[in-house]
Fold this sequence. Notes:
alpha+beta
Amino acid sequence: MNAKRYRTFLIYSATLTALMIAGCAPVISQEALKEVDQRVHFEQLLEDPEAYRGRIVMLGGDIIETQNFPEKTLIVVLQRSLGFRKKPATEDVSKGRFIISVQGFIDPAIYRPRRKVTVVGSVVGKEVRPLGEIEYTYPVIAKRELYIWPLEEFPETEPRLHFGVGIGMGF
């Protein structure tokens, strides 16, 4: 009987360890992470995208807009710094905007405004577009790997603990 309990304990321990390791794994493959040029910072890229043409970068942020064209999809992103697991930060700080170019169709119902994305891709140039009253230069990144983060659930505003006297049910 002890051998059976020990084997069950080992199976549960191995499963728990595997789940913990998988939960901490980056969302971008190790191969892609090795290709990223860590010397290129977003501020430099924003200043002169053409100077970094062909470099592999990793960026993230909040989707502003997704536009579909016959051969490709363009995703306009508000840049955010990357944190744990390369997830874009939630604070109200950004250094600018960029565009992700994806071959084929990406559904704008899924890649919709305010969703968080992380991308590894090659700098392919720039695109100048109007932004309010100015002309804004967007660095354009050709997607190699793209990860859209799961929607974050917001906590309930009502307390889950209730006090009372009598018989009743609550969920």
